[in-house]
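Next up, a chain.

===
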Amino acid sequence: MTFIESIQVCFKKYADFNGCASRPEFWWWALFVFLGSMALGIVSNTLSGLFALGTLVPYIAVGARRLHDTDKSGWLQLVGIIPIIGWILAIYWLAQPTKSPNRFGG
């Protein structure tokens, strides 16, 4: 999956928390959100905040689908609320390879 395809899929599945997302889909989306926030932050903090707010739901949705692809519950994203250790654990889970077959249809 390419960078552009990933962005298109994530916007098409804006609030779809079902199914699975591949590693490239998730990580290209994360890069898009990071670069978009940084670029808009240079222009205006308000624009950056609006962009972050507008991409929050699809970011959570693609994260849930990514965890489904590793045969984990999407709710495990909440571990990211815990500073440092939670962030490390969340990144580890999101970076794992696809576990196929899994209970989420992947």
